[in-house]
């Protein structure tokens, strides 16, 4: 259960997230827009189908959407870090990567 901090009553917020997918074979593009009410963040990503792979649109959509959501997560972490520094809090360490590249 969330408890109020000090005398501040608990609050509930709703953030709106829209995910737009566009396919232009063999490419799929995803654009994700997050509206927090205070800020709007946006991230884009793509997936490319190899000509030798079978045409399965769901795979491209999942890859592009997942990549865009990861990019948005990184944007949120950067924004939080900037806000932490702006209020004079101690220096923070960089967040761990959300996705490790294949070697």
UniProtKB/TrEMBL annotation:
This is DUF1876 domain-containing protein. It comes from Streptomyces thermogriseus. The lineage of its organism: Bacteria, Bacillati, Actinomycetota, Actinomycetes, Kitasatosporales.
């Amino acid at each position: 259960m969330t408890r109020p901090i000090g005398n501040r009553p608990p609050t509930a917020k709703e953030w709106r997230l829209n995910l737009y997918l566009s396919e232009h074979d063999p490419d799929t593009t995803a654009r994700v827009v997050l509206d927090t009410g205070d800020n709007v963040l946006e991230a884009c990503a793509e997936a490319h189908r190899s000509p030798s792979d079978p045409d399965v649109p769901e795979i491209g959509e999942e890859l592009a959407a997942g990549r865009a959501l990861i990019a948005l997560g990184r944007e949120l972490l950067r924004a939080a870090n900037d806000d932490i520094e702006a209020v004079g809090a101690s220096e923070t360490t960089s967040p761990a990567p959300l996705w490790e590249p294949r070697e």
